[in-house]
Amino acid sequence: MRPDYTRRGRGVLKDLPLPIRKAFYKQAGLLVENLFHPSLRAKKFDEANDFLAGENQPAWRFYFVIEGDRYVITNITPHPK
């Protein structure tokens, strides 16, 4: 598996503060190694569209879909509390 990004996902990633971006890259590496890694806390976010969510930091989430051999990152947002 490998990570990939939608246009929106790339744009959001580029605009993130450096510490959040670094944390995301670390989590993306864990995602590629093991979708079920405990620190990802990956889960179904939208059953109808097969969207999944993973934890970037306690206050941030990233959203992705699985397409073939790719994890396609669609968005990275602050956690809506």
Layout of SSEs?
Layout: E1 2-5, H1 7-15, H2 18-33, E2 43-46, E3 51-57, E4 60-67, E5 70-78
Number of strands: 5
The stretches of 5 or more residues where confidence is low (pLDDT under 50) are none
Biggest beta sheet summary: 5 strands, mixed
How would you name the CATH homologous superfamily? RelE-like
Q: Indicate how many domains the architecture comprises.
A: 1
Key words describing this protein structure:
81 residues; alpha+beta; YaeB-like fold; five-stranded mixed beta sheet; 2 helices
Description:
The chain is an alpha+beta fold and 81 residues long. The protein is 31% helix and 40% strand. It is globular, with a radius of gyration of 11 Å. The termini are far apart. The mean pLDDT is 93. β2 and β3 form a beta hairpin. The protein has a single domain, classed as 2-Layer Sandwich (YaeB-like fold).
